[in-house]
Each structure stands twice: as structure tokens, then as C-alpha cells.
Recover the amino acids of this structure.
């Protein structure tokens, strides 16, 4: 049986972070593909604030930027700041044409077996300096992060469309 964990750090400048994690019964490569291809993110976003992302923006490296349209119509450019294929990805969002504000969304995947992966989701706002954004940052809870992990688990465990097929290519596996 998998163990779910969630925690929120204190509100000082050194530890403004929220995390959640759980085991997912799917290969890390399948889970990672659902995260690294932004066109899939609205399907598993537990915050329900992503409307869409164009296809063809699959992340491959630190420095990549992908755009998402939020439910309110605003476009966010997400600057990739950590990337290890199949293991870790993190990005810092910014308003269109601007630099990131200082908060970071990240994912770490740790395979336990061929078809079992621990997935950790992290929201870190320790570099956020715009105090007008603090209330919104504080409102991001471990339960919200877990909602994203749970939705991601549903997709990955059911074979989620657009993941890597057993031969290593991209596409849908029947």
C-alpha cells in the first residue's frame, strides 16, 4: 500500500515550501512524459487553473520555456530551471514577456521498481520578493499538490495517452 505524505514549511524566507509525495503504480518514464509535455498538464492540474498548452513544447533541458494559458485567459511562460530526463523537472512561471517572479514548481521521480515510482511535487516560493503575491503563495497547500499527484496517478496508472511506448517512442499505447 502506498504512503502519501504532505507538508508545509514555515513562512520564513528560508523555508517557504510545500511538498507532497506518494507512490504511483506506473513506470517513471510514463509519469515523466505526462509532466514534461505541457499539453498534458491541464489534465492533471489539481489547482484547476490551467486551460491549455500547445502541443510541441515537450521540455528537454534547463533553459527551455513553455507557455500555458490559464483558465482566466492569461498566458504564463514557464522557465525550466531543473531537468534530468525521467527523474526531475522544475520551472519558474512568469507573466508573458517578463522574468520569473521567484516561485518554483518542481517534480522528482524515484523509481522503486519497473512499475512503481515515488512522485514528489514541490512548490517553493522562497525566492518570491513581490509581497503582493505572498497571500496567493501561502494559499498553495500540500493538499492542492496532492490533488495534482492523484490526478497524475490516475492518468499514468491507466496508461495515459501520449506517454512513451514500450519501445521508447512517443505515442499512445493501446
Amino acid at each position: 500500500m502506498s504512503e502519501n505524505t504532505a507538508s508545509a514549511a514555515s513562512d520564513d524566507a528560508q523555508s517557504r515550501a510545500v511538498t507532497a509525495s506518494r507512490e504511483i503504480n506506473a513506470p517513471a518514464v510514463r509519469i515523466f512524459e505526462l509532466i514534461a509535455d505541457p499539453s498534458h498538464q491541464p489534465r492533471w492540474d489539481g489547482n484547476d487553473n490551467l486551460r491549455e498548452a500547445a502541443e510541441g513544447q515537450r521540455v528537454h533541458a534547463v533553459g527551455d520555456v513553455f507557455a500555458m494559458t490559464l483558465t482566466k485567459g492569461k498566458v504564463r511562460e514557464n522557465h525550466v530551471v531543473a531537468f534530468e530526463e525521467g527523474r526531475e523537472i522544475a520551472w519558474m512561471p512568469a507573466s508573458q514577456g517578463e522574468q520569473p517572479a521567484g516561485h518554483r514548481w518542481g517534480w522528482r521521480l524515484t523509481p522503486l521498481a519497473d512499475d512503481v515510482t515515488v512522485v514528489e511535487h514541490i512548490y517553493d516560493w522562497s525566492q518570491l520578493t513581490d509581497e503582493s503575491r505572498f497571500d496567493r503563495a501561502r494559499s498553495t497547500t500540500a493538499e492542492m499538490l496532492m490533488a495534482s499527484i492523484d490526478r497524475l496517478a490516475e492518468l499514468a496508472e491507466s496508461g495515459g495517452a501520449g506517454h512513451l511506448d514500450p519501445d521508447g517512442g512517443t505515442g499512445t499505447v493501446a
